[in-house]
Design brief:
single chain; 2 domains; alpha/beta; TIM Barrel; binds phosphoenolpyruvate; two-stranded antiparallel ribbon; binds cobalt (II) ion; 466 residues
């Protein structure tokens, strides 16, 4: 029988102290004793309770076995035996839960992973930022336009982006809708992969129509042919192998909306502990990483491997204490530190963390998110990121890790398979004038396919052969 954690009224909890190192009883609702930032203000508490109760009854989207398998792979990545590729939209939208958008995003990630496998000569752990990435942290609770102030848009799991009072009202029914769309996405991704979409014999399935004439196409084509030959060679020696017919895919999202995350946190019959069974890999965003805050409290109690975003301004000692709270047993694969310093700050901000974590013997996987420290708003008001800055942060991160004797074992990107023009630069050198052509994101600007593939090639050039 499944325990109903959110609605257990008599939770016994030791009074929360601001000393997160003092381990008190954890439950899927113990986060409520802490300050939870970035949560919507629902007007109708009874409607929220109904939605949360309904979520409790819905079947999980992933299994504990998959979650633990991913943890083992991330432990491998920590040791340099594979490389983590994590990517997808900044935020999924309900409207984008369509066949072409899901399959194109999968294609880009598969192509990037092919480039990485070929160039790094390492297995790649593929983790999509999808099937649940519906909640967004915001820099302000409200937005004002022409003298009118409304609640900010917090992602489709909370409200809608249109600037009307009705659209911006947080609606708890959206929690159920987000869960359903996550399940639809997950179902389609699983069906594609099981159906042979990810078969290494047929990388041509992953071609995207609009990039036929891309400047990167020749280099990519040569890799596809080399891999095809390698697969045929191996099969001549060893016989047909299922290993080439299927790749693993995992999902991730920011564990932001704690009513949702708590309601999908379950115990299972054969694996001990509590699992967030809405995703394999939740992460804590930079704005919600307070050591004594509700997000760290929630995450410390689940068995999933997890990410922690790390931005400028955090002191190494603060990081070490957060690591202790989230991974007190120093378990391999448990914690991935996703650094997002920005190209201008990475050289000053990253080394002290690398040295401190190394000196303390903390087992973590280091991953670089070269997107979130490199946002800028143009004079026209458009939010963008420059490819050269994204590239530079990644480039520096590899060099800094090499100099500190640590290992950069993964990359975290915001990308899409659509032909969008949201980030400046890249192979086709998108300019400010191009941004107006196909800017679709309602939140952060994403790399399009070509720009994503170029990043994969850059990683290979930087790290390949090491
Ligand atoms: C994100 O990953 O979309 C995000 C908001 O990142 P960060 O928490 O690093 O700012
Ligand atoms: Co983002």
């Amino acid at each position: 029988m499944m325990v109903d954690p959110t609605h257990t009224s008599g939770d016994i909890m030791v009074a929360a102290t601001s000393q997160a190192t003092t381990q008190h009883a954890w439950s899927p609702t113990s986060w409520r004793s802490r300050t939870a930032v970035q949560q919507p203000a629902y007007a109708d508490a009874a409607a929220l309770d109904r939605a949360v109760a309904q979520l409790h009854e819905l079947p999980p989207l992933v299994t504990s076995w998959e979650v633990l398998a991913l943890k083992r792979k991330l432990a491998e990545a920590q040791e340099g035996r594979c490389f983590l590729l994590q990517g997808g939209d900044c935020a999924e939208s309900f409207a984008d839960c369509t066949s072409p958008i899901i399959s194109n995003r999968l294609k880009v990630l598969l192509q990037m992973s092919l480039v990485l496998v070929h160039g790094l000569k390492l297995p790649v752990v593929r983790v999509g930022r999808f099937a649940g990435q519906y909640a967004k942290p915001r820099s302000a609770d409200t937005e004002t336009r022409d003298g009118v102030t409304l609640p900010c848009y917090r992602g489709d799991i909370v409200n809608a982006p249109e600037f009307t009072a009705a659209a911006r009202e947080p609606d708890p029914r959206r929690l159920i809708e987000a869960h359903s769309r996550s399940a639809l996405t997950m179902n389609f991704v699983r069906a594609l992969i099981d159906g042979g979409f990810a078969d290494l014999h047929h990388p041509e399935y992953w071609d995207l129509e609009w990039v036929r004439h891309s400047p990167l196409q020749d280099e990519y084509q040569r890799m596809v042919e080399a891999i095809g030959e390698a697969v045929r060679f191996m099969e001549t020696l060893a016989g047909e192998s299922p290993a080439y017919q299927k790749v693993d895919f995992y999902t991730s999202h920011e564990a932001l909306l704690l009513n949702y995350e708590g309601a999908v946190t379950r115990e299972v019959p054969r694996n001990p502990g509590w699992f967030n069974l809405s995703t394999h890999f939740p992460w804590i965003g930079m704005r919600t990483a307070q050591l004594d805050g509700a997000h760290v409290e929630y995450c410390r109690g689940i068995q999933n491997p997890m990410g922690l975003k790390l931005g400028p301004g955090v002191k190494p000692d603060q990081l070490l204490r957060t690591i202790d709270a989230l991974n007190p047993d120093n378990e391999p694969g448990r914690l991935t530190l996703i650094t997002r310093m920005g190209a201008a700050k990475v050289e000053a901000e990253l080394p002290p963390h690398l040295r401190a974590v190394k000196a303390e013997g903390k087992r973590v996987l280091w991953c670089c998110d070269p997107m979130h420290g490199n946002g800028e708003t143009l004079p026209s008001g458009v939010k963008t990121r420059r490819f050269e800055n994204i590239r530079a942060e990644l480039d520096h991160a590899f060099d800094i890790h090499a100099a500190c004797g640590t290992r950069l074992g993964g990359v975290h990107l915001e990308l899409t398979g659509e032909n969008v023009t949201e980030c400046l630069g890249g192979a086709r050198d998108l300019t400010e004038a191009d941004l107006a052509r196909a800017y679709k994101s309602t939140v952060d600007p994403r790399l399009n396919y070509e720009q994503s593939l170029e990043i994969a090639m850059l990683i290979v050039r930087k790290r390949g052969g090491r």
